[in-house]
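Subgroup meeting minutes
Present: P.N., E.W., G.H.
Scribe: E.W.

1. P.N. recapped why we're keeping a running log of single-chain structure predictions: easier to compare across weeks, and new members can see raw inputs and outputs side by side.
2. G.H. added today's entry (85 aa).
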Amino acid sequence: MARQEKNKQRNQFTLFKALPFVKMNYLLFGAGLLVLVLGYAALSWGNWDSRMSLNLGPVLLVLGYCVVIPGAILYRKRPAKDESE
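Output recorded in log:
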């Protein structure tokens, strides 16, 4: 019983180490939030049939939700290669 609990605690610890967020992750996430805010703002500008509401707003929202935010979560800095090898 105690061994299972110890393994469970070890697995939870490695999960948090597997996603080390650095400054770039937070900057990308902030950029994603900015794109989402701009997308919702573009939806509200003008009439319901304006170019901003029909074209720009949905494109910005799809970019924010499907590209920038997942990119911020999945971004990982690559380790530097040794030149001696």
